[in-house]
Amino acid sequence: MTPQAAAGDTAKSQMQMYLDVYKHHFDLFVKAVFLYFATMGATAGYVFAGSTTRGAKIAVLLVGAALSLVAECACVVSRRWVVAVDRRVAKFAEELGVESFPFNGARDTTIVVQAVTSVFMVAALCGAGVFIWVQG
Question: Is the pLDDT of residue 59 over 90?
Answer without folding.
Answer: yes
